Amino acid sequence: VPKGSMNRVAITGSNLMKVHREEKVKKKKEIEQEIRRRRAVDDPSSNNTDDRKDLSYQRQQLVLTAWERSRMNADVKFGKRTSLPISMQRKSLPVYAMRDELIQAVRDNQFLVIVGETGSGKTTQITQYLNEVGFGNRGIIGCTQPRRVAAVSVAQRVAGEYGCKVGEEVGYTIRFEDRTTAKTRIKYMTDGMLQTEALLDPEMSRYSAIMLDEAHERTVATDVLFALLKQAAIKRPDLKVIVTSATLDSTKFSEYFNNCPVKHIPGKTFPVDVLYSQEPQMDYLEAALECVMQIHINEGAGDILVFLTGQEEIDTCCEVLFQRVKNLGNSIGELVILPVYSALPSEVQSKIFEPTPAGSRKVVFATNIAETSITIDGIYYVVDPGFAKINTFNSRAGMEQLVISPISQAQANQRKGRAGRTGPGKCYRLYTEVAFREEMLPNTVPEIQRQNLSHTILLLKAMGINDLLHFDFMDPPPKNLLLRALEELFNLEALGDDGYLTKLGLRMSQFPTEPTLSRALLRSVTNNCSEEITTIISMLSVQGVFYRPKDKQQDADNKKVRFHHPYGDHLTLLNVYNRWQLAHCTEEFCTSNYLHYRQLRRARDVKNQLHTIFKKLRLPIVSCHGDPDIIRKTLVSGFFMNASKRDSQVGYKTISGGTTVTIHPSSSLYGKEYDYVIYHSLLLTTREYMSQVTAIDPNWLVEAAPHFYKIADDQSESRKKAKITPLHNKFSKDQNSWKLSSIRASREKV
Ligand code: CDP
Ligand code: MG
């Protein structure tokens, strides 16, 4: 070891510990303050309402800037990609040793389950093996992914290995983006897309083989595809169905698919040491950041992977860590900080796969996407706070919410395994061993048992599957979830009193959007405002378009206000899009107005896709020239169930559930006083926020859904003011149908 470098390490260590200690004391004070603040916020007797409003808003704002910054600060020098030639790389993967055995097993069986560690080559290689032996000549080799990002990044990788451009022999299809051509033989897609395809082609006649990848994730679409492909296989003896999973719960899959064979790919994994936290952590973000610093300072070479729950957390941590590292200057080795989550543009995402430059360390902050869908080489350390954001149906509020929840033991072990792919690793669990053993569920609950199923059920009904209680689900959804979804579809008039799809329902099923949006889209045609509604829905489908850099907040706010429409967010989004278009869709326009250029571009793509669907369905694109009443009425036709009435005591209350809700501070209606509003979604943070809110005339509710609302003849109520109440006994008339009467039962329960 050269003398100089020894010296540098010695000095570095002591300097650093001092700085680190000072910083720790400072940080501790900040945390204590924050805890006091949060307590005040949680305390209902506290008058600190401004704080309550601010807390989550500030978080959100911080994030927007963080994202911008992490982009600007990505002045990282990347080395060349691994220099091994591609053919060698492919042969070095564990799955290669089983190539012939797997091909033979696919030839001999209609169903096959393949289990293998993440990174063993299942997703990128098996499709290519099948193509190499001719399956690609008989039809497309399809491979589903639960996540959009994974579908795109894997298709890019495989196209590279194959030696073609994405969209040629290897392509992908995700919602609102189709990168396949007549040439395509290997097609990656989200499971949701294949589910939609099944509607038009239940026998999957274009495919010779379909691989349901990441089956252990048990997304709703994958679960539904299990059943659909099992059916399709009966009519298509030549169709091959391969189910791949990273976990060992293969017996269940095999039993479901008529006891089909299971192939295990032996992984080359190394032991991973697990270090538990001594005591429960109050703030897992701070604990994670400290842990990363400790590893960076004290541990040997190797990259770090930190699991967080979402984009906000990831962006915040990237920014905070970047500042801390910057403050320490040259006293520590270079730390390359990278975020990974689904909404990240693919150019940035591909950076995480690039090898770390010599002498520096990489730390990747990722959502659970890095548990299995994405493999990052060179990870020796995993930091696991033990949480994930999951989409859950909240039966109390009667709606779906993203909630940060503890992960399962299976997930924790999967996370741990990510540290042992390149050599012996370490996994830092930021929770106690007791919590792991006693508080975590052994396995994650499948999505189909906790999510809103209205879109799925609409599709199944459209395929003629009416008897959902006897549908061949691997794990059937709980009855009350099914009934909820049926009820929503009744309310949207997609299902008739008999439980069968209506004409409207059939048309709604042809859109890839949630039923509420599909209804608004269809209504926009009769209301002559499809141009405006497709724009608004495209804008709703992308993540926030506004950003607010910390040092230019005032300017950003001033610019944002110029787009505000007095009636609220939907029309504000329309303004943003239209003015961007008037400015020829330039990046400059976005920069000077604090808008995310990428998100607007994505919205434009989504809009084009929607127009393509309109064309296919022979629906006209017509404009009402921005008439705010027509547009709002049309929105109400889809979102009448998401309506709230102002309440002088608590802000707002949802009309049908009576839940207390508040307008999100980022809304253009924040601080305005309209009596009735509709909202796009609810966000649960410190309180229940309505996000994307628009003021409406309550009479429109009754007009749009006379089966759902009536004008109450309540004497105590001022005569001038109509009181709108939800109608709850519409379906009780029909006692013959089990569906209708049990819906009523579930309603009373909730
Ligand atoms: O599906 P499975 O987890 O078994 O592995 P895979 O996704 O086929 O990945 C096999 C290898 O390909 C990984 O170890 C990565 O080194 C590489 N890969 C990559 O470099 N870029 C991607 N987008 C996907 C995979
Ligand atoms: Mg995979």
UniProtKB/TrEMBL annotation:
<dbReference type="GO" id="GO:0071013">
    <property type="term" value="C:catalytic step 2 spliceosome"/>
</dbReference>
<keyword id="KW-0508">mRNA splicing</keyword>
<feature type="domain" description="Helicase C-terminal">
    <location>
        <begin position="288"/>
        <end position="464"/>
    </location>
</feature>
<dbReference type="GO" id="GO:0003724">
    <property type="term" value="F:RNA helicase activity"/>
</dbReference>
<keyword id="KW-0347">Helicase</keyword>
<dbReference type="GO" id="GO:0005684">
    <property type="term" value="C:U2-type spliceosomal complex"/>
</dbReference>
<dbReference type="GO" id="GO:0000390">
    <property type="term" value="P:spliceosomal complex disassembly"/>
</dbReference>
<keyword id="KW-0067">ATP-binding</keyword>
<feature type="compositionally biased region" description="Basic and acidic residues">
    <location>
        <begin position="22"/>
        <end position="35"/>
    </location>
</feature>
<protein>
    <recommendedName>
        <fullName>RNA helicase</fullName>
        <ecNumber>3.6.4.13</ecNumber>
    </recommendedName>
</protein>
<dbReference type="GO" id="GO:0005524">
    <property type="term" value="F:ATP binding"/>
</dbReference>
<keyword id="KW-0547">Nucleotide-binding</keyword>
<dbReference type="GO" id="GO:0016787">
    <property type="term" value="F:hydrolase activity"/>
</dbReference>
<keyword id="KW-0539">Nucleus</keyword>
<dbReference type="GO" id="GO:0065003">
    <property type="term" value="P:protein-containing complex assembly"/>
</dbReference>
<feature type="region of interest" description="Disordered">
    <location>
        <begin position="22"/>
        <end position="55"/>
    </location>
</feature>
<dbReference type="GO" id="GO:0022613">
    <property type="term" value="P:ribonucleoprotein complex biogenesis"/>
</dbReference>
<keyword id="KW-0378">Hydrolase</keyword>
<dbReference type="GO" id="GO:0003723">
    <property type="term" value="F:RNA binding"/>
</dbReference>
<keyword id="KW-0507">mRNA processing</keyword>
<feature type="domain" description="Helicase ATP-binding">
    <location>
        <begin position="103"/>
        <end position="266"/>
    </location>
</feature>
